[in-house]
Specification:
The chain has 362 residues and is α+β, with helices and mostly antiparallel strands. It has two domains: 112 residues, no CATH class; 238 residues, YVTN repeat-like/Quinoprotein amine dehydrogenase (Methylamine Dehydrogenase, Chain H). Helices cover 17% and strands 38% of the residues. The chain has six helices and 25 strands. The strands form six sheets. The protein has a seven-stranded antiparallel β-sheet with strand order 6-7-8-9-10-11-12, with no helix packed on it. A four-stranded antiparallel β-sheet has the order 1-25-24-23, with no helix packed on it. Strands 2-3-4-5 form a four-stranded antiparallel β-sheet, with no helix packed on it. A hairpin with a 7-residue loop joins strand 3 and strand 4. The chain is globular, with a radius of gyration of 21 Å.
Length: 362
């Protein structure tokens, strides 16, 4: 099999560069594979996804398949779901990073072809691409916008409408949240501690021995949640509680509650209600891996990292509908990472393309 493709560096910045619809020209030695036969062989395994070598072969075959419909006779979305879950399982302790990334890539290739004829471009109200390196979060704020990205230089930027820019390098930031009217929290699922910024001077580091996924204000007090699932009141050293998660990879304070996504648990959200400190578990149904969510009136909106979709739910988290498709083009999302409600519409940021896509409520 093609060694250059199979031995790509284990960097998320390059590993997921190509999709089958990109029209890649392949070398003569690229393998010819019967997709139906290969998948049926994989499905006989205990996992239903085969070995790492078979997942490699599947990715090669899908890239070679190009922008053509998948052959009939197999439940391709089921296989994509199984690969997504295999990816998520590697976030458990002692998970295999290489297998995790290969499972994600095979899933992405499948989703690209599953959605080949799904055209959601009419749903797009506006779309723009950020020049930043793999953006993590976007927040319209005050008289401008805040962007958090993976740039090796300045990775937090505040752009004012007038054109002025304030920029900082703050560890490996992955999230920005509003603490109060003119105060922001900049946090990370990778870097220890978090930052407070009052929009004057430089952000101030809040020391903590683990990465802090989320900081939020509730009834005049500031709290923060670290990636181990422990919740702290700012200024205290002992945790108030620990959530039942392996890791708190993504979290948001929405409508007075904290919603936590543990990437190792498919179709699950852990919800903390600070009024009484009640913990509940929500089945996210069609969403396998929640990357972000927001609430508008009585509707929740959730983005799924693995499917490239926006899903809607009622106030009791019963599914209502879905929008967008997987991929790089108009009407598509590729690893949607952040979701915001802004000026009456939903704005979705994709990590792998840097595109901000605006759609209506549904």
């Amino acid at each position: 099999m093609p060694s250059a493709f199979l031995n790509l560096d284990e960097s998320s910045f390059s590993f997921y560069t190509y999709l089958p619809r990109d029209g890649i020209r392949l070398a003569p030695e690229w393998p010819s594979v019967d997709l139906i036969q290969l998948v049926r062989q994989m499905q006989t395994s205990e996992s239903g996804t085969g070995s790492e070598a078979e997942i490699d072969l599947l990715s090669c075959a899908l890239l070679a398949h190009g922008a053509s419909p998948l052959p009939p006779g197999l439940d391709w979305p089921l296989l994509a779901d199984q690969l997504s879950i295999l990816y998520m399982q590697q976030f458990k302790l002692n998970g295999n990073r290489r297998l995790k990334m290969k499972a994600a890539r095979a899933n992405f290739f499948l989703r690209d072809l599953i959605d080949l004829e799904r055209d959601e471009s009419a749903q797009v109200l506006a779309r723009r691409s950020f020049g930043e390196c793999h953006p993590w979060d976007w927040l319209p704020f005050a008289d401008g916008e805040v962007m958090v990205d993976s740039s090796p230089a300045l990775n937090v930027r505040y752009r004012k409408t007038c054109g002025d820019i304030a920029g900082f390098r703050l560890g490996l930031p992955t999230q920005v949240d509003i603490l109060a009217e003119r105060r922001l929290a900049i946090s990370s699922c990778y870097s220890d501690g978090w930052y407070q910024w009052d929009m004057e001077g430089k952000p101030v580091w809040q020391m903590h021995s683990r990465p802090v996924t989320l900081a939020f204000s509730h009834e005049g007090r500031t709290y923060f949640l670290d990636n181990g699932g422990s919740l702290f009141l700012l200024g205290t050293e002992l945790p108030l509680l620990r959530l039942p998660v392996t890791s708190a990879w993504r979290a948001r304070y929405v409508d007075g509650k904290v919603f936590v996504s543990d990437w190792s648990e498919p179709r699950r959200l852990t919800v903390l209600d600070p009024d009484g400190w009640q913990i509940s578990i929500v089945n996210s149904g069609p969403v396998l891996l929640t990357n972000d969510l927001c609430k508008v009136d009585e509707t929740y909106y959730v983005i799924d990292k693995m499917q490239g979709r926006v899903f809607s739910y009622d106030a009791n988290f019963a599914p209502k509908g879905e929008r967008m498709s997987f991929g790089k083009g108009a009407g598509c999302l590729y690893d949607p990472i952040a979701l915001r409600f802004h000026q009456g519409n939903l704005c979705v940021l994709s990590w792998l393309t840097g595109a901000l896509t605006e759609i209506g409520l549904f």
